[in-house]
């Protein structure tokens, strides 16, 4: 059986409303398929524009199996490229970030400008065309200070998401923020288990006592707390401040602003702000949390004082890297307005708890006794949405690639 025929059989066996067939979580063929069909065809959030603070700033990262590079050019524009030299393919920049007037390949010194044009290539023949050997560009969209990339030649439509994200995120002023901290967590679990876990809070009350103090862990699909008076008061207050809050969604994204637990103004250990210098000072910094999520890999939260991003990248069938980023206002001073440990403690602790849950889940799915089990419509609606979206994407890819 070809890999695609095997994969198609897995999806044909999938039972709706249930966790996925065992092979889709464990088999290397599913991992390869997921990279091509899912990560290769989706908009993914790479980070924030403020990570590239000045002309010449760049960041390099691995997305799925693909090395990519994002630069800010002399005009301040942000560009994305495949991070592979047009000579013999060396990585141009190591994963991480930096600043350079030009991009010089470490191998034979081919030199590119920040727009990806090849400027210099020594000892090449007189008829060598530099114009034909520029870096290959990637689709990138910067929206409200966040950067979204797509590896597909024809990326999915993004206009609806862009309009909504702009409206909800603009007051948080991500362009005038700074990256205060970042972390990578290695999880020995399939990426879909990491994401399924991230899409529900069925486990939160017992699994995350610290998060549960501020986060409405009994939330519905839209993170609202029901039609009660507190929710109505939150909606009224946000309307008066001109802060968009209604839950909106498309096939691969969700955006909403929701109320935190009573008396809490931030997702933090005790509900108070983690940075005194606010990113958005409307309503005395009591704005609930703006949450956005995109499939396949991300959820993120912006409160008045900080923003947190969680991004999940598959590395192998049983290995996933979770990238976390924390933003604060660019003028917030470390040690004065915020303390790094306090800023990062809650999600670091939550991510470690989730790592254990996802690794346990993966280990249990290895059992010959595993059969796909039913999701709770009440508590796992977003997990169902995620696996349905995953299966839709997979079927569309199979329809295009299998005769
Ligand atoms: O998707 C989210 O926003 C959250 C964060 C904690 C768990 N997960 C449901
Ligand atoms: Fe980059 Fe040779 S591979 S200069
Ligand atoms: Fe969790």
From TrEMBL:
> What is a single molecular function from GO for this protein?
dioxygenase activity
Coiled-coil regions, chain positions: none
Keyword Phosphoprotein belongs to the record: no
Keywords for this protein: 2Fe-2S, Dioxygenase, Iron, Iron-sulfur, Metal-binding, Oxidoreductase
Q: Do you know which Pfam families this protein is assigned to?
A: Rieske, Ring_hydroxyl_A
| Source domain of life | Bacteria
Which residue range or ranges hold the Rieske domain? 43-149
Q: State its cofactor.
A: Fe cation
Keyword Metal-binding among record annotations = yes
- EC number(s): the record gives 1.14.13.-
Q: What is this protein called?
A: Aromatic ring-hydroxylating dioxygenase subunit alpha
């Amino acid at each position: 059986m070809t890999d695609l025929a095997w994969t198609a059989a897995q999806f044909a066996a999938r039972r709706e409303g249930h966790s996925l067939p065992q092979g889709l979580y464990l088999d290397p063929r599913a991992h390869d398929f997921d990279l091509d069909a899912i990560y290769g065809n989706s908009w993914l959030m790479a980070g924030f524009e403020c990570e590239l603070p000045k002309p010449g700033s760049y960041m390099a990262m691995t997305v799925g199996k693909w090395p990519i590079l994002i630069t800010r050019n002399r005009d301040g524009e942000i560009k994305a490229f495949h991070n592979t030299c047009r000579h013999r393919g060396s990585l141009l920049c190591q994963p991480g970030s930096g600043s350079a007037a030009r991009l010089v390949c470490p191998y034979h010194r081919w030199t590119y400008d920040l727009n990806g044009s090849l400027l210099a290539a020594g000892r090449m023949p007189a008829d060598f065309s530099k114009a034909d050997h520029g870096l290959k560009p990637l689709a990138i969209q910067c929206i409200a200070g966040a950067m979204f990339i797509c590896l597909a030649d024809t990326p999915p439509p993004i206009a609806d998401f862009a309009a909504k994200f702009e409206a909800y995120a603009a007051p948080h002023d991500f362009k005038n923020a700074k990256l205060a901290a970042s972390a990578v967590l290695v999880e020995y679990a399939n990426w879909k288990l990491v994401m399924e876990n991230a899409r529900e809070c069925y486990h939160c009350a017992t699994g995350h006592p610290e998060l549960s103090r501020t986060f409405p862990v009994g939330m519905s699909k839209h993170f609202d707390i029901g039609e009660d008076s507190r929710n109505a008061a939150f909606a009224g207050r946000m309307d008066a401040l001109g802060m968009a809050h209604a839950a909106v969604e498309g096939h691969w994204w969700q955006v909403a602003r929701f109320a935190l637990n009573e008396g809490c103004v931030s997702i933090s250990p005790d509900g108070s702000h983690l940075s005194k210098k606010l990113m958005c000072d409307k309503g005395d910094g009591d704005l609930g949390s703006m949450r956005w999520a995109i499939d396949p890999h991300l959820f993120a939260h912006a409160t008045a004082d900080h923003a947190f991003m969680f991004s999940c990248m598959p590395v192998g069938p049983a290995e996933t890297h979770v990238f976390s980023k924390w933003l604060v206002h660019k003028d917030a001073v470390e040690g004065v307005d915020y303390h790094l440990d306090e800023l990062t403690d809650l999600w670091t602790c939550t991510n470690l708890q989730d790592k254990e849950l996802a690794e346990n889940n993966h280990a249990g799915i290895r059992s010959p006794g595993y059969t796909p089990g039913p999701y709770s419509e009440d508590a796992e609606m977003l997990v169902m949405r995620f696996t349905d979206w995953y299966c839709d994407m997979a079927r569309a890819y199979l329809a295009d690639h299998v005769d």
